Amino acid sequence: MGIFSGMNSYKSIIVLLGTIMLLSCKNDIKKVNALTDRKTLPEMSGENMEMIYSDSARIKYKAYTPLYNKIHTGEEEYDEFPQGIHVISYDKDGKIVGEVKSKYAKNLIKEKLWEVRNQVVVMNAEGKRLETELLYWDMEKEWIYSDRYSRLIDGNNILESSGGFESDQNLKNPVFKNITDGEVQFEMKPNN
């Protein structure tokens, strides 16, 4: 009887430890739901894509990206380009008027606003080159702006700003804030 009563005590201890372990394991239901929540998953996704944005059968922009995600939740709808983007802008005659490249981009659909980040480079048809780390592009107003350090290179002229800039999307009339280091040259024409 001594052997069997010892076995029962041993079994009781194992059952008790198992019950304690089972009760001590719990999952945070919010974390579990967040992992399985379909709202945070892309509605559509694609790799190595070319996208065309047009208006009245006229191509306005072409975008190239290694990875595309379309996100649509109850609160917001946006296209995300987590591995970067290259956008080419065309005029009404189909001529290239500008390009934008970056390592990350997000197109907020309802706002018609692009947020472009990380090694942003904007080029216009005349060869002006704008560099910054954050750029907003209002597609409806055809306006770009930033509040971060920005640098504009136009031939031998370099203009730098610690406070950002704003401009039409083709860099025709940029306005820089808090101009820092840089050399600005003005061409003087003689009066006749």
From TrEMBL:
Protein's UniProt name: LPS export ABC transporter periplasmic protein LptC
Taxonomy of the source species: Bacteria, Pseudomonadati, Bacteroidota, Bacteroidia, Bacteroidales
Highest taxon, organism lineage: Bacteria
Gene Ontology cellular component annotations, sorted alphabetically: plasma membrane
Organism annotation: Odoribacter laneus YIT 12061
InterPro entries, per the entry: LptC (IPR026265)
UniProt GO MF annotations: lipopolysaccharide transmembrane transporter activity
